[in-house]
Structure formats: C-alpha cells, structure tokens
Amino acid sequence: MSGAGPASLSRSGSAPPPSDRKREALGAGSPIQPIIKDVGEIYSRLLDHRPVIQGEIRYFVKEFEEKRGLRELRVLENLKNTIFETNEHVLPKCEQAMHDNLNEAFKRLQAANNMIHRLQEREHEERKLQADKLMAREEKRIAHWEEFMKEQQNKQAEVDEEHRKAMERLKEQYSEMEKELTKYVSF
Questions:
Q1: Which of 53, 113, 120, 133 is at 20 to 30 A from 35, Cα to Cα?
Q2: What are the start-end ranges of the E strands in 4-98?
Q3: 33: how many CB neighbours lie within 10 A of its CB?
Q4: Are the C-beta atoms of residues 16 and 9 closer than 8 Å to each other?
C-alpha cells in the first residue's frame, strides 16, 4: 500500500505541490508518513462513497431519461383517455341501467310488501275469528258449567231433603219401636 504518493515523489526529486510541502515538512523522514498514506487510501476506499454514489446517480438519470423515453407520458395519456371515455360513455350507461333496475326492484319490493301486508291482515282476521270462536266456546262452557253446578246443588238439596226425611222417618220408626219395646219390657 505504500506505492506512489507524496513521500515517494519527494524522494524521486520532483517538487511536491505547496500543500504537500507542509505535510512533508511535518513528517519528513519520519516512519509515520507511509502509515498516514495507507490510512488515507483505506479511508477513501472504505468510507468515502462519493465516487460510487455519483456513478449510481449518473446511471439512474441515464436509465430514466434515455431508456424510458416518453413511456410514462404515453401511459398517463392512455389513462386520461380511458377516464374520459368512462366518464362520457360508460358511466351514464351504468347510471341509466342502475336507475332502471332499481326502479324495477323498488316496484317488486312494493308489490311484495303489499302482498305481505294483505297476508298479515288475513292472518290477523283469522286469529280474531279463532279468538272469538274460542271465547264463545269458553262462555258456553262456563254457562254449561254453571248450569251443571246449579243442577248438582239442586240434586244435592233434594238428596239432603230425602236424607232428612228418611232420618225423620227412621227416628219416628225407632221411637215407635222403642215405645213398643217398652210395652213389652214392662210385662
């Protein structure tokens, strides 16, 4: 790494530039001079990326400007034409078709809604009729039950009356029998 540099030029006899003279004067004849030179080369190779970056920038500009040409402009123009055509022709057709279809769908929905409403009214009327029939049956059943209960009470009253009369007859019979028995016991 200690190839041709400021130190080797001064040894060969040619005059170094004025800025190199100060460096040479500071490090003239010292063993540090080749080390400084090597460090400078290492720095420029590893840490100084300006030459590489400048080359990449030149390559990018060349690719972008020369090879691509007007391709992006053509793509944008085609896109603009497509959008214009869509706005002028396709969008109105879509809007008209959508409007027609939505009107048709709305009419169908209204018809379906009316049919469902009529069905609900019929169902409501049927339920009301069934409820009325059920109520009439319930009232008839209640009336029949009340009649049955009155009849049962009347029968119970009759049975109680017959029982009471039978008890009185039996009492009279037993009292007569007792009287007769007392007649016979007294003998």
A1: 53
A2: none
A3: 20
A4: yes
DSSP state of 5: S
Q: Considering only CA atoms, which of 87, 8, 7, 2 is closest in space to residue 42?
A: 2
Angular region, 128: left φ>0, alpha ψ -120 to 50, beta rest: alpha
As a residue count, the chain comes to 187
Q: Are 10 and 24 in contact (CB under 8 A)?
A: yes
CB-based contact 3:37 (threshold 8 Å)? no
What is the spatial distance between Cα 17 and Cα 54, in angstroms, rounded to a whole number?
28
- Please tell me the predicted confidence (pLDDT) of residue 139: 95
For residue 47, the SS3 value is coil
Residues 4 and 36 sit within 8 Å (Cβ to Cβ): no
Give the Cα separation of 128 and 122 in Å (integer).
10
10-residue mean pLDDT profile of the chain (187 residues): values are 42 49 55 88 78 82 71 82 90 90 93 96 95 95 95 94 93 88 73
The answer to whether 6 and 20 are in contact (CB under 8 A) is yes
Amino acid, single-letter form, for residue 64: F
Look at phi and psi of residue 36 and say left if phi exceeds 0, alpha if psi is from -120 to 50, else beta: alpha
**Dihedral of alpha carbons 156, 157, 158, 159, sign:** positive
**Nearest in space to 44 (alpha carbons), one of 1, 7, 102:** 1
